Amino acid sequence: MESQPLLSVHLSAGYRGKPAVLKDVCFEMQRGEVLSLVGQSGCGKSTLALAVLRLLHWKQATAKGRIVFNGRDLMAVSERQMRAMRGRDIALVLQSPLSALNPARRIGAQLEEAWQIHRRTSVTERLDAVHATLRQVSLPSDRAFLRRYPAELSVGQAQRVLIGMAILHRPALLIADEPTSALDIVTQAEILELFSRLSHDLGIGILYISHDLLSVAAISNRVAVMDQGRIVECQPTARLFTRPAHPFTQKLIAALPAMPQFGCAAQAQIA
Amino acid sequence: MKTMRAVALVFLAAVLAASIAANWIAPASYARQFRDQPDAAPSAQHLLGTDDLGRDRFSRLLYGTRISLLLAPAAALMSTVLAGAIGGAAGFAGGWIEVCVTAATDLFLSLPWLFLLITVRACLPLNVSPVVSVAITFVLLGCLGWAAAARVVCADVRSFRNSDFVLLARASGAGGARLLMRHLVPNLAPVLAAQFWISIPVFILTEANLGILGLGVAEPLPSWGSLLRELESFSAYSAQPWLFAPLLLLVLTVSSFQIVLHNEEVAG
Prior knowledge:
Distance between the termini of chain A: 19 Å
Number of helices of chain A: 12
Strand content of chain A: 15-25%
Radius of gyration of chain A: 18 Å
Strand content of chain B: under 5%
Largest interface: A-B, 26 and 18 residues
Largest sheet of chain B: none
Strand order of the largest sheet of chain A: 6-7-8-3-9-10
Radius of gyration of chain B: 22 Å
Shape of chain B: elongated
Distance between the termini of chain B: 15 Å
Structural class of chain A: alpha/beta
Order of helices and strands of chain A: EEEHEEHEHHHHHEHEHEEHHH
Order of helices and strands of chain B: HHHHHHHHHHH
Shape of chain A: globular
Number of strands of chain A: 10
Oligomer: heterodimer
Number of strands of chain B: 0
Largest sheet of chain A: 6 strands, mixed
Structural class of chain B: mainly alpha
Number of helices of chain B: 11
Helix content of chain A: 25-40%
């Protein structure tokens, strides 16, 4: 992995009334890698997700530092260039799927629009892209389904629609901010399986943000542990679970009821 | 309730149809003066009698209904568009713009409107042409109604601005115009539509009130407001109960509107 990293972050960020939410957070991600970011609620994980997309100012927060994506410092590009990259090169999946879809618009219209933002193509090409992405996330792509409103979907289906929307342009990086925490355990497993498959088949790098260590173990190549705005430890998944170095990581792992099942990514590391 | 609603709808449709067909139904023009019979009692020729200038009251009621029923929705449209634009822009922009607009709205809502309208009337020349008077009434109604609605819209847009789906649209690369047209407008449409419909009966009443102040539609054009002015002198109508016809029509129309709208709300 000597090649140029996909993403390299060195960042501090804060809100107006809460100045140091991220303190010199520093990590790198390789192409196609699944990096998990774990930590307790409120430790700055979601702030980091928005900071990478440079959307923090909408939450009245400011960020300082460097975010190098594909060799380009995102902190230095113009808003216009940044907008062209959002959704096309870096995509986001949010925690609660039903509130992340516009309640007043049909699924099909929302998917088509996500395509149109970055591509001006014919209607057939656009619909083909929408159908293809829905197949990829194992959803029906018939007319009746596309004409549904978000309220007519199950939470799992809605999350698949959002993941489909996120991979529509084959981004190099997908930021998933607690994408499974609103789902029941069976749907969670399905979505995790979907993420692994997408990362494997399409080579999408996934920054997987979660507080759920079990899902993290199942999906990631490496895990970064965050505590109070700092990354305290970053290790390959199997090593982190078997030999945690930092006291906070040890505490997290000790709180697990049983040792997790590793996904294929971590199993390869053990072998 | 269903029958009530059906009756109200039929009544509104009939009133609207009659007013639109005024050119054909009305026995005389609204301005024609039968000088030989002023202040006549109802008869076969003049169903509601004639006024002090000898004009046929029934014809004036038909033409007046047309003006009031056209003016109110037009003004409702204007105030809804104003409310959507002002409230929407404030809620969307946030920060100091929202603070300023909210302050302006509060100020607007706390003005003593009756006195202001009388002042406006005093500033205008005594004889305004009918067309100008209709335009002034339209603008006044439109300006009167936007403030309360703008607040509702502003609060709605503010909650959209902070919503997950707008955040996600931004994260998908959507710019300001796209957010506005594709995300905010579809979500605001039901609120604005409700605002439009509930404004109509209010504006019908307001136009009537303006007419009494002499601010409404000017002579010789009739409107409900100007027809109601005939009720100003008690001695006149105690002997002529048919003068109540415009009032009756106004009350029936506005309550029909309320019945229909209420049922609409209950039905969701």
